[in-house]
Amino acid sequence: MKLSLSVFLLSLPFLPSTIAQTYKASFTKYGQGDQNGSPNCNTATAACGFYTYPGYNAAVSQNLFGVGPGAGAGPGCGTCWQLTPQTDSSGHALKGAKTIVVKVNNLCPAQGNPLCAQNGMSGTNQYGTNVNFDTCIDDGASAALFGSSGVGLAIGTATKVSCSQWSGSKNIT
pTM of this prediction? Predict the structure, then answer.
């Protein structure tokens, strides 16, 4: 019996590649007109060197992006994530927020930004999340995600998905 069970287990497909990456995540917004004086977030000058039109994009915390400022496009560039906000920053259930899929096109640097300064993928920020997605105001991602919830910071989950689930075009120039 031990031999047949071993043969069965060896014949299974490689399981880790079929398991989705899901993290507890915080969601914020940035772009032209925000309180931090950010420039337009949907331009080819973003860290990954592309913008999306149409389609939603986001900057991600440095631990998920994979490199720091000035190091170019990190391994997180071009990955797609399903963002599902669940609560506001105080833990109250959100009403009016929506699940969206974004493509990563920018870095949310750790230095000077506690929301994006998690130490590795198991570290957390001040809201207890492993990653932060800074959704783009200029392409409509923030409005779509936060909807009529009335908040600008939410907590929920981020799940890596196939980019076939993302609706948009990647533009370089």
Answer: 0.86
